Amino acid sequence: MKKGAIFFSGLAAAALMLSVACGGGQPAPTATKPAATATPRPAATTAPAATTAPAATTAPGPVTGTLIEVAAAGDQLKFDKDKLSAKAGTQVTLRFKNTSGFNLHNWVLVQNNTKDAVATAGVTAGAANNWVPANDNRMIAHTKVLNAGQTGDVVFTVPAAGKYQYVCTFPGHNATMFGEFEATP
């Protein structure tokens, strides 16, 4: 009898851990929701710093440069656009809308062909770091993790002309939630 109870307790604990790791289907509790505070916007440069990527505020602010908008595709684990572009060297405000009813998402711009490696490193970084690795030179810019229904901005300088990727690094989302970002000459 004891073995059965222990087995089912362990099974329930494993299901709970899997639910939490996959977003739990619930928005983050209000007590842990990050405050909507303004983050100082970086000065315009010709290229983003290699060791730090600008992070977003959780509340949209004034638009700096060109506005690019992208959203989650409802409750599907994908973005509503699979391609974005902007002129290299220009400053943009990327506005990400998490239109999901229950999933948490972020938007991370990375060097081409690094989305999965950055997402894996994000799992190690954990929720306290918005599922993004600190000081990772593969990242160009990112938003904070947004609860369902939230919108966040990130301001950054578009990198050199070429192809890049954007991805949601919340655990498990990178397999289907990504797109291509082209920096045009």
What does this structure look like?
The protein is an alpha/beta fold. It has a single domain, classed as Immunoglobulin-like (Sandwich), CATH 2.60.40.420. The protein contains two helices and eight strands, in the order αββββαββββ. The chain has helices spanning 2-21, 115-125, and strands at residues 66-71, 83-87, 91-97, 108-111, 139-142, 151-157, 162-167, 178-184.
Give the helices and strands, then pairings:
Blueprint: H1 2-21, E1 66-71, E2 83-87, E3 91-97, E4 108-111, H2 115-125, E5 139-142, E6 151-157, E7 162-167, E8 178-184
Parallel strand pairs: 1-3, 2-8
Antiparallel strand pairs: 3-6, 4-5, 4-7, 7-8
Distance between the termini: 70 Å
CATH architecture: Sandwich
Number of strands: 8
In total, the number of domains comes to: 1
Structural Rg: 18 Å
How many helical elements?
A: 2
Low-confidence stretches: 1-52
How are strands sequenced across the largest beta sheet?
2-8-7-4-5
Instruction: Name the shape in a single word.
Output: globular
- Approximate strand percentage: 15-25%
Largest sheet: 5 strands, mixed
N-to-C SSE series?
Answer: HEEEEHEEEE
